[in-house]
TrEMBL record:
Identification of the protein by name: WD40 repeat domain-containing protein
Amino acid sequence: MPDASTWDWNPGRREVQDTGSWSDKFEWVEEFHASPDGEKVGAVVKTGDMEFTACVNGDVWEERYDRVFYLRFSPDSRLTGIVQQEGEWTLSVDGKHWPEMYGYIWDTNFGPDGSITCAVQQDMEYGMGVDGVLWENFFENANNFTTGSDGKSTAAVVQVQSLDQADVDTFQKGVFSVAVNGTAWDNVFMNCYTPVFDAECKKVACQIRKTLYDYTIAVDGKIWQREFQCVWAPVFNPATGAVVAPVRLGGKWGMAQDGELIWPAAFANCWHQQFSADGNKLWAIVAPSFGKFTVAVDGKPWDVTAPVVIDLAVSPDGNRGAALGKDDKVYSVICDGKAWPGSFEMAWKPVFSPDSTKVAAKVEKKGRFTVLLDGKPYGQDFDQCWEPVFSPCSSKVLIRAIDGGKFVRIVADVSEF
């Protein structure tokens, strides 16, 4: 999360950039991106025949490339983009690209200290890099790339043994493992999925497939002593270090901790679990019956259900939850077991205030965008806007939006909703 304590929180509306004029300067302008603090807006622009760069607040990067994509602002508002030059790829940060070029890079992520990680393909082998420094060992296949909360620890599922086409026997004996900072576990498995780090980035857990029909969890390569019909992604308890994962037994889903059930296998589905910051409460998205999803805390589901529930958010104090409900093409925001008024063409993950008393969400209706606070819309909608950000004192909301061709930065008091 970016440090918002140094941002400008003076109430009011400020025009940052006339983005509408960019189309007169460039052959085309791609999707706009807003910095976390709302002080910058950027986009990929075409400046000539097969010549691309990025524009930030009206100023273009000096370098030109054959292709630029996947623009992302870092938490400290540097603009990054994956760039191609003469068939090779690298990362540009505020217009200055890394010195090394690669076969391909993707999946940019940021650390709290400004570090940047990417997945990398070089000479048809795969791994990861941190600030341009690559793993010492690369692999013929890698996927499920992940970065720890420190922004420097990296892991991925890797193939550690070659596999000929249709070589089912070797596959069933196991050819996959997890590489942590480039070093693979000693144990191999038929499949591995979704490696995750603990809070201190010292341990890694993942789903594994032991046989064609048996699944379980491995922690630092050591498997739980119980198999299940299926498992979903594990998480670490931030306080105790225990590992919990949704598991399937007898055709139903429950939750297991370190291999033992802590929620009975009573759900049609159970996944996307999330601990409170103190580790005392466990939240998850569950389906009490087929096709009816909701949120559960410590195994107890809310009464409200929807055909699909996504984007679970838990308040900083761990006592409140919010998520999105989806019924066909209609979205709703669900908070504390109740749906907010209104339905929307699209909605984005809810955001809690630092003091846990308020919830905001970006929504779209009739092609226009706005922000809701505790179910109440801001008094204006926009051509485009980004997810809201609360001030550290929880009394203000930052709205970053494009309104009539202008990128504007609005600091609204919560009383304005």
